Amino acid sequence: MSSIMPRDNFNFKLFLKKMGPARFAQKVLFPDQIHKVNDRPIFLTGIYRSGTSWVGKIISFADSLICYREPFNPSVVQRMPQQYYYISPEKDNLFYADFTEKLLKGHLVGADFDYTTNNNYFNFRHSRYLIKDPTAAFLTEWLSNKYSFETIILLRHPAGFVSSILKLNWDFDLSIFLNQKNLMDEHLHHFKFIINKYNYKGMTIEKGAVIWGVIYYFLNKLINNEGYYYIKYEDICKNPYDKFKEIFDKFSLMWNERVEHEIKLSTESASTFSRNTFCVSRDTSKMDKIWMNRLTVNQIKTIKRITSEFDIPYYRD
Predict the structure, then answer these.
(1) What is the number of domains present in the chain?
(2) Which of 44, 94, 118, 209 stands 20 to 30 A from 24 (CA)?
(3) Mapping DSSP to helix (H, G, I), strand (E, B) and coil, where does residue 220 land?
(4) Residue from 242, 248, 243, 227 nearest 22 by CA
């Protein structure tokens, strides 16, 4: 019997429930079949305010999954140098490499950042890892190449994104992009003028559109690479149960009753959404078009004009 079975007296029924029957069979009863289990880590990213917290929370309830929430965000882990840090896929960075390797070995669980696991008994060395971090969007290709991450990229309508950050009055320093020479030289040199043009203090329609364009221009360049899965936030809002099923099937995640419960809970508790910036409860039937009631026709035209500069093949209508 595999060494992951607890040796002390324990409640077997509770152990089996926590692990999940399928994972128990794969990991304990038939350890020689372990190569058939998809244990590749998952990276969930996209632009901020694109639903990564909601989607990440639902996925985190899959059996035998450890979810790290924004470990590359200096607002969460103070030792991280900055948000939206870029590493060229063919290069390396000793600090980020050491940190990521410790994450994927479970060595940093219980440290100074946020994580969840749906299995108290499961050995972290045998668990699968999910990293949810929109602030690490520019690490996407590096993580995939170096650590074989499977990647979920959440897309959101530019007007939906801009209306959300305007409502919250969130500013953003575009120098985060401009000051990274490798990022600008390798990906964003065509957009240096427009980024500089709107690099001022305070959030505006134009600045929000530039942020959307920069981040999704970078992420869209990966679309033809293996291991990247693009899904629209609006599509999940319209049909959350089926779309989460699609995600779980695509990434060989184990569906359970808790997942179903959390989907129902998070899509039927609309009254709590507006009270908390990071609340993951929402009336999904309204979220995909909420920006239509927040923005004027001229504001929408401005967003479309600026985002068209980046020639991204989404939301062109």
Answers:
(1) 1
(2) 44
(3) helix
(4) 248
Instruction: Quickly state the pLDDT bin for 179 (edges 50, 70, 90).
Output: very high
pLDDT over threshold 80, residue 306: yes
Residue 17 counted as domain residue: no
* CA–CA separation, 17 and 43 (whole Å): 26
Indicate which CATH number applies to the domain containing 303.
3.40.50.300
| Residues 67 and 117 sit within 8 Å (Cβ to Cβ) | yes
Q: Counting beta carbons within 10 angstroms of the beta carbon of residue 7, is it exposed (0 to 12), middle (13 to 18) or buried (19 or more)?
A: exposed
Q: Which tokens belong to 255?
A: 């569906």
- pLDDT, residue 3, reads 45
4 within a domain of the structure (yes/no): no
Nearest CA-CA partner of 156 in 52, 242, 226, 233: 233
Mean pLDDT, range 109-125, rounded to an integer: 52
Helices (DSSP H) in the chain: which residue ranges?
A: 12-19, 21-24, 52-59, 94-104, 140-147, 158-168, 175-178, 181-183, 192-197, 205-220, 233-238, 240-250, 257-267, 284-287, 297-307
* Token representation of residue 230: 């693009």
Residue keyed to tokens 């600090």: 95
Domain membership of residue 97 as a residue range: 23-310
Element (H, E) at 46: strand 42-46
Question: Does residue 128 fall inside a structural domain?
Answer: yes
| Calpha distance 102→104 (Å, rounded) | 5
Asked whether residue 282 is assigned to any structural domain, the reply reads yes
Task: Check residue 31 and give its pLDDT.
Answer: 47
